[in-house]
Amino acid sequence: MTNLHRGLSPLLTIYIVSFFFTLHAAIPVYVNSSFLSTLISKNYIGLIYTGSALLTMAALILIPKLLRLVGDYFTTLLFIVLEIAALIGMAVVGNAGVIIVFFVASSVLITLISFDFDLIVEGFSKNASTGSIRGLYLTSANVAWVIAPALAALLLVEGEYWRVYLAAAAIFIPGLFIFSGKLEHFKDPLYRTVHFRKTLLTAWQSKDLRYIFGISFLLQFFFTLMVIYTPIYLHEHVGFSWSELGPIFSIMLLPFLLLEAPLGRVADKVLGEKELLVAGFIIMALATGALYFFTAHSFALFAAILFMTRVGAAMVEVMTETYFFKKVNAGDAALVGLNRTVRPFAGVIGPLVATALLAFISLPSLFLFLSGCMLVGIPLAFALKDTK
User: Fold this and answer.
1) Is this model's pTM higher than 0.85 or not?
2) Which of 72, 273, 340, 353 lies most in the core, judged by the most C-beta atoms within 10 Å?
């Protein structure tokens, strides 16, 4: 594939845009629920997340039709502009109902933009180097994830949440200009016309796709519960201040930055994905379960435990991405869309399961439950047919 524009190559361009995209999305992640609690009762916040997840799933089912109509480039450009507008709206509008609408719209748009980026990256990938390309792509995003918690802590002064959302919008604007200027000649693959039910059947009939979807669900289930309940546990039960939590979360996220690109190359050149998936789930289960047994207010202890949870998660994430995209190509927009519905599906199921469990168990016990769930990933990984 030749360069689409003088200067940056297409893949390097999407890596840079992905950095701006992820940074803008990651900065509000740990403050969203607190912000919403200033608008409505905490009892109803979960319903907003559930509604956003359901709308996201519906949008992912419909997006292949839009791609065939106007193409990935113009679709993504539209979504980026709308996302920036939604964030500005959250920062400047005073009406709670309108802010919630903007929040839901932003939640949906973030997933749709990520989906579009997936197709663009896959369009420039060769199967033999999929692991390396996906690893670098994830790494470009993970640099942003590491920076975001500390940056959010600096922005959130005296409860002025508008600063966080306005900053998120401003950060994404360079990404918009880079994307619009460098990828206007992206050549769309043939997006196959496949109905959702048929796509679901196709995924179910393939043993490997069925198991990798299950693994992906477990990973997103883990992320959903950890993002919601880890800050609550550390802040309200262990007693960490938000100024301490920002650095802890940045340390926690370092494995995504440090490990995913090297592990992608290992999957391409040395090992298959199966072995690394199994190891990742074992590490996730042990480290997540450890949260139940420690309550001492120790920065180093909790930073280390959370760091290890993400060592396992990083292994599972890059191997899941690598395995899935070795089984599909850029034209399989329906299958890619189905794969991306896993995250919002976990976003619906995770809080509902946790809410039900917390009626009977303590918050620390929830981490033991989540640890047990991660053990389910081990037989699923063993059942995969390695690509090596």
Assistant:
1) no
2) 273
